[in-house]
UniProtKB/TrEMBL annotation:
One of the GO BP terms on file: RNA modification
Family assignment from sequence similarity: Belongs to the PPR family. PCMP-H subfamily.
Residues annotated as transmembrane: none
Protein name per its UniProtKB record: Pentatricopeptide repeat-containing protein At3g63370, chloroplastic-like
Molecular-function GO terms, alphabetical: RNA binding; zinc ion binding
PANTHER family: DYW DOMAIN-CONTAINING PROTEIN, OS07G0578800 PROTEIN-RELATED
Pfam families: DYW_deaminase, E_motif, Eplus_motif, PPR, PPR_2
Glycoprotein listed as a keyword: no
Domain of life: Eukaryota
Domain DYW: 864-956
SUPFAM superfamilies per UniProt: TPR-like
């Protein structure tokens, strides 16, 4: 027989499963010839219903082999086989049967029905092209044919074609049924064409199909996808009979998709109360709603229902339970569920691994990943991404490279998300050359790709590369609407201190309509970092949205640019708007109070911290210690320090630094010793603080000892700043030759701070030879630092080299450099009063000078004060020098302090430069004569003048 021959030469199924991807030739199915005529069709239908693919083909072979088999029987048999191929998605077998049907010419009789089956089969098997070919060749089509073709387009992600077919049906006058509308609505859902959906909704009402459950469920889903949840709810509530579980599931899912978790859970409870039997999808939707931590407790109750109704073995439900517990940070419960699962799919493994990563349990995630591979489960791109994230956050380059190799072996490196995560992993591990290699090999890049690499460059101190990459994105014509990308480029502007580039980015975001409040706050911070406070302030004032973040950005900008007064004024404005400060804003306020030495403001902030229970935050408590130290009240720093029970390295370091700032070197060393006894590991900053304390207190031997144990005991390699401290310590104690030897032997010639320390000591001890060397090196290393020129000029002036002084000043002028004028300030009441030398701008100027003259006269007559004119580094007459000394800013501040306060509280003054020897002597005598403590904080340290003695021991 012809048919028998064809079947014998066809490989209808492989030795394993119809979906097998084995390319080897499947074994030939041999037909057994039988004499009797069995009841084939009923048995074939039964087998098809049971889904037994292999037996279906065996029965077909018997049917075809029988000589008396009618054409009708063959026709029905092939129809059933197309159905089972569709259900099994067995495309190869479907194509073979299609070829056999064509060979037997079975499509002649009643071909519409069988062709429809073929269209349906190809659609289900994902071969939309073959379905289209069969559909186009049909001369006659039924409503079922059109439905099959539209359904095929929807299933295979071709929604536009589905809509075209729907339009063709309408234009040809083909009658529509519920399935036509349902499939078309699904296509509209994929496209999110709300206006088209409403049109179909109207048509459903017109055709009387609005009560059909399939149409209603599709409409609910469509309105949900199109963000019209009100319409979806209205439809669902209007259902006459709500016994269909799919309807409830659709609505629950709709609420979850729109973030309406409470509504979803309320509907779930209502469904149970209505005695509607829940399904897998019901529980999945309800558990997804419980991923919101507000409903975690209800999630546990749903878990109990799952167990009660016997869904605990359903993989989909168990996966949803797993994610619910993970999102609620109940990793122990999630782990129990996971390790008791009988069947784990990729979603199960990925969920648990991702849960560990999200909660910072990177070692557990890596261990589980290896367990996944050992269990024979092949990791997909999601698992690899989780592992790459874990590697990046750990800085575990070796593990990250292992995952990279695994992605290459499994051909997953071309996946865009995997590539993006690889770029991020190498960036976090500091391997930018590897990162560049991955990025260059990417065939496709999206905004995430560019954002990741730009952020990597900006965060790893390659700002120009970040800017160049941003230019490349612009050149490619890609749409830049990613706030993170813009933020990363602005970070690069900060690193480059480039105002022009920041302005260019600002113009770009305004032009593109991206100038939102987040960008505005970032720009305020960027302009502040770039020193352009006026621009920062302008953006801040013009921004419509002013919240704690914008205020904090502006305050930080003021503080970074030395405008502490303005920062504290902004704090008052913030209070007027009733905006409550957060911890970052508090840190800026404390820094501003410390910069101004504004004890009153500092205490107000401290009170706020106590009221808001913010005192225990690590960064705040150390800043509070610093603030009190900078405001001259070391005893308050001790109080805060002693109040804290659990002190970290930063707190100990802050207290050591506070002692050093006030010249209490021994106390600083004692605290360092206590820190060691508490087994708190000191870091580089701790040793800097201790060395500075030794320097201020002339503790040379202690300083040398501490410098050694830093390397020997704690294996910390000294920074240039540590060497500068050691040189400063030796220089201040007049061990200049030893300091110079350290500079030469340790190759420190390229460190400006070292030469600055030597030059300052040379000025004090009149070491001309070494001073010449230091001055020359300092100006070579930092030719644009005005402070260095001033220091060199002062050294020359101290030894009457006025021609050299003039040369230095001419050089400064030629370079456009200006000396910072000496100024002092004092806090009286709620206001900080600032004075410069010979200041006449204060409203009470006459009274201040009168008070100062009276005090000076008393000290000259009764305390033996004699002006030290050598401190005036100007080439003028002696009388003029004396006059200049009497107008120094700190003396004006002392005089105003005496006028403004009649009590015996200390007079607290802050100066931006170091106190000169004459003002130092004047302040000592004034403290004794007035019987009042005078506290002066200069650029380096504190001076507590009490009873004619200074806390520095005349060593500063």
């Amino acid at each position: 027989m012809a048919a028998s021959g064809i079947i014998q030469n066809m490989s209808l199924f492989s030795s394993s499963h119809p979906l097998s991807t084995n390319n080897q030739k499947a074994p030939t199915f041999k037909i057994s010839r039988v004499s009797q005529k069995p009841a084939i069709i009923p048995s074939l239908k039964q087998i098809c219903r049971q889904g037994n693919f292999k037996d279906s083909f065996f029965t077909l072979s018997n049917l075809i082999a029988h000589e008396n088999t009618s054409q009708k029987c063959l026709y029905e048999a092939y129809s059933l086989l197309f159905e089972i191929c569709a259900s099994e998605k067995a495309l190869l077998h479907g194509q073979q049967i299609h070829a056999l049907v064509l060979k037997l010419d079975l499509l002649c009789a009643d071909s519409v029905f069988l062709n429809t089956k073929i269209v349906f089969m190809y659609g289900k098997c994902g071969s939309i092209g073959d379905a289209e070919k069969v559909f186009d060749r049909m001369t006659e089509r039924s409503i079922f044919t059109w439905n099959a073709m539209i359904g095929a387009c929807v299933v295979n992600g071709v929604p536009f074609r589905a809509l075209e077919l729907y339009k063709d049906m309408r234009s040809l006058g083909v009658s529509l049924d519920a399935h036509s509308l349902s499939s078309t609505i699904k296509a509209i859902s994929q496209l999110e064409f709300l206006y088209c959906g409403r049109e179909i909704h109207g048509l459903a009402i017109k055709l009387g199909l609005i009560s059909n459950v399939f149409v209603l469920n599709s409409l609910v889903t469509m309105y949900t996808k199109c963000d019209d949840i009100r319409a979806a709810t209205f439809l669902f509530n209007g259902m006459c009979e709500r016994e269909d579980t799919v309807s409830w599931n659709s609505m629950i899912s709709a609420y979850v998709m729109n973030g309406m978790n409470q509504e979803a859970l309320s509907l779930f409870v209502e469904m149970l109360n209505a005695s509607v039997e829940p399904t897998t999808y019901t529980f999945v939707g309800a558990l997804q709603a419980c991923e919101d931590t507000k409903f975690g407790k209800l999630g546990v109750e749903i878990h109990a229902v799952v167990l009660k109704l016997g869904y605990s073995l359903d993989t989909y439900v168990v996966n949803a339970l797993l994610m619910m517990y993970i999102k609620n940070s109940r990793l122990d419960e999630a782990a129990k569920i996971f390790f008791h699962m009988q069947e784990k799919d990729n979603i199960s493994w990925n969920s648990m691994i991702s849960g560990y990563v999200q909660n910072g349990l990177y070692d557990e995630a890596i261990s589980l990943f290896h367990e996944m591979k050992n269990a024979g489960q092949k990791p997909d791109h999601v698992a690899l991404m989780s592992m790459l994230v874990a590697s990046g956050r750990q800085g575990n380059l070796l593990n990250g490279m292992e995952i990279h190799a695994l992605s290459l072996r499994n051909c997953l490196d071309s996946d865009l998300q995997v590539s993006n995560t690889l770029v991020d992993m190498y960036a976090k591990c500091g391997k930018l050359d590897y990162m560049d290699s991955v990025f260059d090999r990417m065939l496709h890049r999206d905004n995430v790709s560019w954002t990741t690499i730009i952020a990597a460059y900006a965060q790893n101190n390659f700002p120009w590369k970040a800017v160049q990459s941003f230019r490349e994105v612009q050149t490619e014509g890609s749409s830049i609407d990613d706030a993170l990308m813009i933020g990363s480029v602005l970070l690069a502007c900060t690193e480059l201190r480039c105002n022009l580039l920041a302005k260019e980015i600002q113009c770009y975001v305004i032009k593109r309509g991206l100038y939102d409040p987040v960008i505005q706050k970032t720009l305020v911070s960027v302009y502040g970092d770039c020193g352009n406070v006026d621009y920062a302030n302008s953006i801040f004032r013009l921004s419509e949205v002013k919240d704690v973040v914008s205020f904090t950005s502006m305050m930080c900008s003021y503080v970074r640019n030395g405008l502490a007064n303005e920062a504290l004024e902004l704090m008052l404005y913030m209070n007027e708007l009733e905006i409550e400060a957060d911890s970052i804003a508090i840190l800026s306020m404390l820094t501003a109070a410390a910069d101004l030495a504004s004890l009153r403001k500092g205490k107000e902030i401290h009170g706020f911290l106590v009221r808001k229970s913010l005192l225990l935050q690590d960064s705040i408590r150390s800043s509070l210690i610093d603030m009190y130290a900078c405001c001259g009240t070391l005893e308050n720093s001790y109080k805060v320090f002693n109040y804290l029970k659990n002190k970290d390295t930063v707190c100990w370091t802050s207290m050591i630094n506070a002692c050093g700032l006030h010249g209490c070197g021994r106390e600083a060393i004692d605290i360092f010793t206590m820190m060691e006894k508490e087994n708190i590991q000191p870091d580089h900053i701790t040793f800097l603080a201790v060395l500075r304390a030794c320097s201020h207190a002339a503790l040379v031997e202690d300083g040398k000892r501490i410098f050694k144990i830093m390397q020997s005991k704690y294996a910390l390699e000294p920074w240039p700043e540590h060497y500068a401290c050691l040189v400063d310590l030796l220089g201040r104690a007049n061990y200049l030759e030893e300091a110079f030897q350290i500079v030469k032997t340790m190759n420190l010639e390229d460190i400006p701070a070292v030469w600055c320390a030597i030059l300052g000591a040379c000025q004090v001890y009149s070491n001309k030879k070494l001073g010449e060397i230091a001055a020359k090196k300092l100006l070579e290393l930092e030719p644009k630092n005005p402070g260095n020129y001033v220091l060199v000029s002062n050294v020359y002036a101290a030894i009457d080299r006025w021609d050299d002084v003039e040369d230095v000043r001419v050089t400064m002028k030629g370079k456009g450099l200006k000396k910072d004028p000496a100024c002092s300030w004092i806090e009286v009441g709620d206001k900080v009063h600032t004075f410069v030398a010979q200041d006449k701008s204060h409203p009470e100027c006459d009274r201040i000078y009168e008070k100062l003259a009276h005090l000076t006269e008393k000290l000259e007559k009764e305390a033996g004060y004699v002006a030290q004119t050598k401190c005036v580094l100007q080439n003028v007459e002696e009388k003029e020098k004396v006059k200049l000394l009497k107008g120094h800013s700190e003396r004006l501040a002392i005089a105003y302090g005496l006028l403004a306060s009649t009590d015996r509280n200390p007079i607290r003054i802050t100066k931006n430069l170091r106190v000169c020897s004459d003002c130092h002597a004047f302040s000592k005598l004034a403290s004794k004569f007035l019987e009042r403590e005078i506290i002066v904080r200069d650029a380096k340290r504190f001076h507590h003048f009490r009873d004619g003695i200074c806390s520095c021991g005349d060593f500063w």
